[in-house]
Amino acid sequence: MKFEISKHAHEEIKRRGIPVNIVEAILQNPQQIIDEYGNKKAYQSIIKIETVKDYLVRVIVNDAVDPAKVVTVYRTSKIGKYWRQP
Fold it and tell me: What is the pTM of this model?
């Protein structure tokens, strides 16, 4: 699937210090895809940032459009809040 990263998402990636290559890797091979509000999905993976702590990086995508649009990106240490067990 092809993805377009919105201007807002680019700004948030930079502001939050999330490497673009991590965002691209999550889009290509997420550990989970979770349905979110509206037509959006969270592509998410647990990663180690700055080799210190595990974070959940969530890439919020509107895949009802073509190409799918990355709406925003953020990381959180509250993995249990968003992670879904199979």
Answer: 0.92
